[in-house]
């Protein structure tokens, strides 16, 4: 069960955030509406939502997931690999400290972004990406193993972050796209396979009794429903334009 979620409102500078997509610049007003709907959906899932104010200095700072890894027992502050995002952690630490006494830090030259970390019960998968390097991944693995979790480092081939292509729904069930469909590290899980034309829907979030999914991916939605999960669909167009998905917009714990 998740009790708490931290989000950050997008600022005016959001339109200048990083992207690899060719979907065009985000519409700020629409992004604000979509963010508000995201907050409402979280409340429907029964969590307490901490809403941090926009931070104009960091255009991508609404993607709070990348700044930390939160477990029930301790927090790890990340060290984002994107230079324009690295300073975002300072604006997150006070809020994370208000919930956690036991806090670890990923140290340079290690880099790590929360979007590369997938928790499957007591086992964490750590993606090696353009944002998370081997040094950062090893630091996290060491912290997790010391705290009695399992950890596996997974080099990514194509996906931006690990969770761009795979999500965990509970009950040993993952939603998987592209390189993760037949990936040896995820062979033992029940898989909901996302077809190539719906790849963006691989990033979805299970929060208590619901799975929040992006709107407009009917095949994946049907498969998730058929697996017994209740879904909430959200418009995500303005976050997709900056490579952001549903998980990126929150820290859940
Ligand atoms: C970035 O490039 O860092 C942002 N525009 C998108 C971050 C997405 N975060 C995530 O997948 N956890």
Could you walk me through the main structural features you see in this protein, from its secondary elements to its overall organization?
23% of the residues lie in helices and 25% in strands. The mean pLDDT is 98. It is globular. It is built from 6 helices and 15 strands. It has a single domain, classed as L-arginine/glycine Amidinotransferase, Chain A (5-stranded Propeller), CATH 3.75.10. It has a 3-stranded mixed beta sheet, with helices on one face. By secondary structure, the chain is α/β, with parallel strands linked by helices. The termini are close together.
Number of domains: 1
Bound molecule types: citrulline
Secondary structure category = alpha/beta
Q: Please, what is the average pLDDT?
A: 98
CATH superfamily: L-arginine/glycine Amidinotransferase, Chain A
CATH-defined architecture: 5-stranded Propeller
């Amino acid at each position: 069960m998740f009790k708490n979620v931290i989000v950050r409102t997008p600022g005016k500078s959001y339109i200048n955030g990083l992207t690899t997509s060719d979907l065009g610049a985000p519409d700020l007003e629409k992004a604000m509406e979509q963010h508000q709907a995201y907050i409402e959906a979280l409340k429907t899932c029964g969590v307490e939502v901490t809403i941090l104010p926009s931070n104009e200095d960091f255009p991508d700072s609404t993607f709070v997931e990348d700044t930390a890894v939160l477990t029930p027992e301790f927090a790890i502050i990340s060290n984002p690999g994107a230079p324009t995002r690295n300073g975002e952690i300072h604006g997150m630490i006070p809020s994370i400290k208000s919930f956690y006494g036991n806090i670890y830090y990923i140290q340079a030259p290690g880099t790590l972004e929360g979007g590369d970390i997938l928790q499957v019960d007591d086992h964490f998968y750590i993606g090696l990406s353009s944002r998370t390097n081997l040094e950062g991944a090893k630091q996290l693995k060491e912290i997790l193993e010391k705290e009695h979790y399992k950890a596996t480092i997974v080099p990514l081939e194509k996906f931006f972050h690990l969770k761009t292509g795979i999500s965990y729904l509970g009950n040993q069930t993952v939603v998987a796209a592209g390189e993760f469909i037949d990936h040896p590290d995820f062979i033992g899980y029940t898989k909901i396979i996302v077809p190539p034309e719906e790849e963006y829907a691989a990033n979805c979030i299970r929060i208590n009794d619901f799975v929040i999914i992006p709107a407009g991916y009917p095949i994946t939605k049907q498969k998730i429903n058929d697996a017994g999960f209740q879904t909430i669909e959200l418009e995500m167009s303005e976050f997709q334009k900056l490579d952001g998905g549903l998980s990126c917009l929150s820290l859940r714990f």
